[in-house]
Design a protein that fits this description.
GO terms for molecular function: rRNA primary transcript binding. By secondary structure, the protein is α+β, with helices and mostly antiparallel strands. Strands 1, 2, 3, 4, 5, 6, 7, 8, 9, 10 and 11 form an 11-stranded mixed β-sheet that branches. The longest helix is centred in the N-terminal third of the chain and has 28 residues.
Length: 273
């Protein structure tokens, strides 16, 4: 008998009961997985793990409002080898995988369908919208195609990463920015890719702000005095880890580039992007 008054038989019974409860929960998850295994939606998708932390779910929801035609879908413990064919069958053009470790975001995988490539980034310094100062009246307009800026990707590998990221956005996002528009910036500095999300605010000569949600504001707009830029978030930083040819395959995939210390070197002036 233990010091707390529990016998060995009682302890064995508790362990058996816990194992039965875990097995029951596992069967329930498998049943839900089979029931909701198919994915339907827009040409691009964002998928996250099952039973992740609220911070990861919030980041995925905010990212789904930044990239147009992006759908948030649970993974339900499905392997990527099974998930990718379903996404291709339903007409998706890209797959984003957000991973966490110990309730902290650490990896972002971008896989273009159906023939690749697949880029893996280390995800860090995530700041959600609610933690940014002065966000009053700075909402994200639904259905507005953002203006995309990809800055300082100078090398051949950098231009490869620029095309991988740029393919997530429609072709219209690379044109001339509209009067009422938001801007998505991927800025490369010392191989760290900083993400920022801004919104334009137009002000008239009398100092009043033009309502961006009013469709008649553009036609009746007087000569503008200035254009202000407000950050609407979220913020995060990416660091390239690898680029793989084709879709994601951890065992038999062919890698174009993998981050190695021997390749990059110890010099702080040696950069690959």
């Amino acid at each position: 008998m233990r010091g707390d008054g529990v016998t060995k038989h009682q302890l064995r019974f508790r362990k058996q009961r816990d194992r039965k409860e875990k097995a029951k929960e596992k069967r329930e998850r498998q049943r839900k997985q089979k029931k909701s295994g198919t994915i339907a939606g827009f040409p691009q998708t964002l998928e996250s793990l099952h039973r992740v932390s609220p911070r990861t779910i919030g980041f995925c929801k905010e990212l789904s409002r930044v990239i147009p035609n992006l759908t948030l879908a649970p993974r339900w413990h499905q392997s990527l080898k099974k998930l990718i064919p379903k996404a291709i069958e339903h007409g998706y053009t890209a797959l984003l995988v957000v991973n966490e470790d110990m309730k902290r975001l650490n990896t972002l995988v971008v896989s273009h369908l159906p023939h690749g490539p697949t880029a893996t980034f280390r995800l860090s310094n995530v700041t959600p919208r609610r933690k940014l100062r002065g966000l009053k009246n700075r909402g994200i307009e639904d259905g507005v195609i953002p203006h995309l800026i990809l800055n300082r990707f100078m090398t051949t590998l950098g231009r490869r990463v620029e095309r991988i990221i740029g393919a997530l956005f429609p072709l219209e996002s690379r044109g001339v920015p509209q009067p009422h528009c938001r801007t998505v910036v991927f800025h490369n500095q010392r191989d760290f890719i900083f993400f920022r999300h801004y919104r334009y605010i137009h002000k008239k000569n009398d100092g009043k702000t033009v309502n961006e949600d009013d469709p008649e504001a553009e036609s009746s707009m007087e000569p503008l005095d200035r254009v202000a830029v407000n950050e609407v978030g979220p913020r995060f930083t990416l660091k390239l880890k690898s680029i793989q040819r084709g879709t994601f395959d951890s065992q038999f995939g062919e890698y174009e580039w993998v981050k190695k210390g021997s390749v990059i070197g110890n010099s702080r002036r040696t950069f690959v992007l």
